[in-house]
Amino acid sequence: MNERSVTVEPGHVTSTLDYDAGARAPVFVLAHGAGAGQRNAFMVHAARALCDRGITVVTFDFLYIAEGRKAPDRAPRLEQTWRAVLADVVERLGGPVAIGGKSMGGRIATHIVTDESHPVRNVAGVVLLGYPLHPPGRPDQLRDAHLPRLRVPTLVVQGSVDEFGSEEEVQRAFSQAPGPIDWLIVPGGNHSFKTRRARGTSPVDAMTAVYDGVARFLHAVMHR
Fold first, then answer.
1. Mean pLDDT for the chain?
2. Tally of CB atoms within 10 A around 45
């Protein structure tokens, strides 16, 4: 695992971690969620699991994590960080690459691929690990205004009882997207894909299915 520094703007630097699966492996840039950075257990486990499945994974910290702050930055600065990291990865490893993330990190990835004023290139696919469609208990506060511009092939991995957007809510929201949308629903899964054995799927089996599905999608979109 290699660590690298990336300058987002003068005086503001973040870091990336490379999980290298080999010279010809697809490259996937994976962003963390709002509550923890790239070294939290979910991110590390996901990166290693995908690396074991033949995907080179690059993770990074948004600036508020890199600078020791708890509250996430506003969307424009999150987007700026995403763009800086993406540019660095493409320069180092070549393109195209896939991008995505857990919760907020994935949502901001969809922002940068739908922002027509700052178009990004070299993105072959997007993976969303628990899309935060709305705050828990506030289904009227939807984060979907940009989805009618989402044209990049996208995989949405969603727990069926995710408190940030149930299976039905998220599928309805993404029906607005003109691009191809693939689905991987975790039966009985919450926002972190945690399940109860009583629902018929063990937590280990659920996460294995998630990693297998994400790897299949990435191999497919990167070899078209």
1. 94
2. 12
Percent of the chain with pLDDT over 90: 89
Distance (Å, whole) CA 89 – CA 18: 10
pLDDT at residue 140 in the model: 93
Q: Which amino acid is at 169?
A: E
Nearest Cα to Cα of residue 79 among 60, 54, 62: 62
Question: What is the per-residue pLDDT for 199?
Answer: 55
Given the DSSP bridges, would you call strands 123-129 and 154-159 parallel, antiparallel or unpaired? parallel
Structure tokens at 216: 């299949």
Strand order in the sheet with 27-31: 2-9, 12-19, 56-60, 27-31, 97-102, 123-129, 154-159, 181-186
Q: Which CATH superfamily is domain 2-222 in?
A: Alpha/Beta hydrolase fold, catalytic domain (3.40.50.1820)
For 193, the token pair is 């894909």
Contact 43, 30 (CB under 8 A): yes
- pLDDT tens for 59-72 read 999 999 999 999 99
pLDDT at 198: 47
Please, are residues 211 and 45 in contact by the beta-carbon 8 Å criterion?
no
Number of residues written out for the chain: 224
Query: Tokens at residue 172, please?
Result: 């309805």
Predicted TM-score of the model (pTM): 0.95
| H runs (alpha helix) in the chain | 41-52, 63-66, 75-93, 104-114, 167-174, 203-222
Compute the average pLDDT of residues 161-183: 96
